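Lab meeting, item 3. Inverse folding demo.
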């Protein structure tokens, strides 16, 4: 039995990690499904995509802020009751992705002969660190990003050591997948490209240098090009998803609005440093040097996860808990939904864009909402001909529980 477990360690480790993570996800959501707005939106897009709706296809590829890869992973669960409509599908998918990440890190560290008594507690500390656990439980694309970046770091280290072409090709594919998960990672892909160029410049063969760079670039560009091709086939415009970036100021505003956790994605780089130190420890001569390098490596790897706990302890108004960052937006949506249900239960409410999915998902009477991906005045006029229209607008200066409360709807002229 022990020999079988040793031969199949990766499979056993993955199965055990997946079972534990799924149990945590289901326990966390056993009473109330408390997922992030991203999980709700991607589940809504996935359900409409499977239903064959045009707005589902537009929602999949039509926005730079909502890259398509995380939504595609949710599709297998989009039609399952309770999973698809509530957004719970995303945390379940994240549990699978986290199990893959832990299996990758376990194999990586075991290859450097890190003792199991050190390796397993380190992996547990990594997984239960606030940003990693919060992304998995609430449903965020950060979990997928960490898997891609950790795998990319693994193949980058392997290529730097061996110059193996397959590792470089895999690294290129992962670079493209990273961009179609979070577009800001194009900066990381460019940084990896510079590392590759710096590494091959030492070789005299010019053909080797050019060919090596192409082995990395072609898979990256091809994977990224699928996003442009999808926009061309569905929307008739290959750059449709870039339509909102009219200026540099708009691009910067988009990045700030996404609240991108750059420090979270530095973790793979720090793991690279730890692994590099482990390699030094493995090659060191003498028990003292080997032990010293191993201690340094373990301290670096512990620091990767420990500082996230420190950051969670010192919260400010501008820096909320990783687990509660989506509560404010959800409470605002719930407040508007409750207001409409109380004062305008007969109203037909038009919601648009990706935010509109949140209103539909949070409402108990979903038939009262009409969701459009684009706010088309002609479509609204067609659906409400002969009816009186109302607009729900914020009431300046009024607050409810520290937040701006909605005003009463104001009527406008009858639509004829």
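The presenter then showed the designed sequence:
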């Amino acid at each position: 039995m022990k020999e079988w477990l040793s031969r199949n360690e990766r499979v056993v480790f993955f199965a055990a990690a997946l079972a534990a993570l799924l149990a945590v996800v289901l326990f966390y959501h056993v009473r109330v499904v408390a997922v992030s707005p991203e999980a709700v939106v991607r589940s809504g897009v996935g359900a409409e995509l499977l239903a064959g709706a045009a707005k589902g296809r537009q929602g999949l590829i039509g926005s730079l802020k909502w890259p398509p890869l995380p939504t595609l992973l949710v599709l297998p669960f989009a039609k399952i009751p309770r999973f698809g409509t509530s957004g719970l599908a995303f945390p379940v998918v994240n549990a699978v992705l986290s199990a893959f990440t832990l299996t990758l890190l376990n194999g990586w560290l075991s290859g450097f002969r890190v003792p199991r008594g050190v390796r397993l507690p380190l992996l547990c500390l990594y997984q239960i660190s606030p940003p990693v656990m919060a992304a998995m439980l609430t449903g965020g694309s950060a979990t997928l990003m960490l898997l891609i970046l950790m795998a990319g770091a693994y193949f980058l280290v392997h290529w730097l050591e061996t110059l193996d072409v397959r590792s470089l090709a895999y690294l290129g594919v992962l670079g493209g997948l990273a961009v179609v998960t979070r577009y800001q990672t194009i900066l990381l892909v460019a940084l990896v490209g510079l590392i590759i160029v710096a590494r091959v410049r030492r070789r005299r063969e010019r053909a080797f240098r050019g060919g090596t760079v192409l082995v990395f670039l072609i898979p990256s560009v091809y994977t990224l090009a699928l996003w442009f091709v999808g926009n061309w086939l569905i929307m008739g415009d290959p750059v449709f998803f870039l339509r909102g970036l009219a200026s540099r100021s708009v691009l910067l505003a988009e990045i700030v609005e996404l609240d991108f956790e750059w420090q979270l994605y530095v973790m793979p780089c720090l793991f690279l440093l730890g692994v590099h130190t482990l390699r030094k420890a493995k090659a060191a001569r003498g028990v003292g040097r080997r032990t010293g390098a191993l201690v340094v490596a373990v301290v670096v790897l512990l620091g990767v996860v420990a500082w996230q706990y420190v950051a969670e302890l010192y919260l400010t108004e501008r820096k909320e808990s990783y687990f509660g960052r989506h509560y404010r937006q959800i409470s605002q949506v719930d407040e508007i939904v409750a207001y409409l249900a109380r004062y305008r239960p007969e109203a037909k409410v038009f919601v648009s864009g990706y935010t509109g999915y949140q209103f539909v998902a949070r409402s108990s009477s979903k038939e009262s909402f009409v969701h459009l991906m684009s706010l088309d005045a002609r479509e609204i006029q067609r659906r409400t001909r002969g009816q009186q229209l109302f607009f729900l607008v914020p009431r300046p200066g009024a607050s409810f529980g520290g937040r701006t409360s909605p005003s009463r709807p104001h009527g406008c002229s009858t639509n004829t």
